[in-house]
Amino acid sequence: MGEEAPEVRGALPAGHLVGDRYQIEGVIGDGASGIVYVAERVGDEDDGGKRVALKVIHRHLVRDRQISRRFVREASILRKLRCPNLVPLLDFGETDDGILYMALELVEGRALDQLMLEGPLEIQRSVDIVRQVCAALESAHGAGIVHRDLKPGNVIIEPAGDDEPERARVLDFGMAKVLRGNGNDSLTALTEQNMVFGTPEYMAPEQARGDEVDARCDVYAAGVMLYELLTGSVPFESSTPIGMMTAHLMQEPPPPSNRAPGRRISPALEAVVLHALAKRASKRYPSAAALADALDRALSRPADVASTAPPPAPDEADDLATRDTEHAMGPASTLRPAAPDASESPVSAPIAAPERPSRMWIAIAVIAALLGIALGIIMSLMAGA
Q1: In a 3-state reduction of DSSP, which class is residue 29?
Q2: pLDDT value at position 376?
Q3: List of the chain residues with pLDDT < 70
Q4: pLDDT computed for residue 110 by the predictor
Q5: Domains in the chain and their CATH numbers?
Q6: 3-class secondary structure for 267-335?
Q7: How far, in Å, are 262, 271, 293 from residue 257 at the CA level?
């Protein structure tokens, strides 16, 4: 599930027995809330001797109610999900001294962000990986789960075997949002409104504002990942999280072919990326499956930009990405399907607004967005997110 990690302070020693079930072999990696180990299942059960990835909360965070609740919630989410492109939960428990752990299938592979350090992946391989990520997302979305922290570091690439192709696995549902049947309301008090969750480089505009989100925020993050795989960089650059999130709110992404002119990115594939990165959620692909279908069409008809357009969506009175900031600023530029001509750019001119807001209102909108982002970050940090 990754390369050998350096020594981690506070890690359990090799041979330590967790919950009388799992014997620690070594550390895979660590994060803000816990450490992931390679461990062997012990005992006389049928799965005795099986090696697993064992995720354990840091000792000093065991009594942190927010962290422990999030950990339990992640386990309950993973218990619902079954997909070849996800990592299944095998076991979940608590030790006598109150430490929470979860056992996951041990995946032998490398994180996508580490793989990308070696240089750009082939375009076909990049698209294949994102299509598999879409399959994982579609499984989660079907169960009412929005990931909210999709990024290359949360995707493990299993190398191809004798009879098996390379496989992408999506990890880490610790920031996931559980939705009601209508896809809008949170079932958990952990997901407070106006709090910011996720990684700034991959955040949808509505997510950066702390608005309610649905599956389309994961579609946006998948679009950022595809952009990065194709060009070698994320669409926007900033030295601060607030600057990065503001860019997602205010700036249009440079077309991938402009960012990486030597990569021969087809017009249709470029159009898919830009549709996925639409500022307004209603202008993106409505689902991960729709994004995967558009990628298939882009590969089979590389000059056919029109075929990659998302299905028309009805006007939404409360569109997730058209709240106060964008209403004050006027319509964002959008993609208009063009004739299948490889020589034409898939990006159209912005749709003209009948009346442009004054500079004062634009300034007020920008300031309001920045204040909202800053407040969301502060609240998230206080909540232990």
Answers
A1: strand
A2: 54
A3: 1-7, 44-48, 180-197, 315-385
A4: 93
A5: 17-105 (3.30.200.20), 110-382 (1.10.510.10)
A6: HHHHHHHHHHCCCCHHHCCCCHHHHHHHHHHHHHCCCCCHHHCCCCCCCCCCCCCCCHHHHHHCCCCCC
A7: 8, 10, 21
> For residue 342, how many other CB atoms are within 10 A of its CB?
11
Q: What integer pLDDT is reported at residue 107 of this predicted model?
A: 92
The Cα–Cα gap between 221 and 199 comes to 10
The single residue of 128, 149, 172, 214 carrying the catalytic annotation is 149
pLDDT at 119: 84
What is the total residue count of the chain? 385
Digit-coded pLDDT (tens) for 103-159: 999 999 999 999 999 988 999 999 999 999 999 999 999 999 999 999 999 999 999
To the query of whether residue 296 is one of the catalytic residues in this protein, the response is no
DSSP result, 113-168: HHHHTT-PPPHHHHHHHHHHHHHHHHHHHHTTEE-S---GGGEEEEPP-SS---EE
As a whole number of angstroms, the distance between CA 255 and CA 285 comes to: 18
- What per-residue string of b and e applies to 317-339 under the rule 16 or more CB within 10 Å gives b? eebbbbbebbebbbbbebbebbe
CA distance 272 to 224: 11
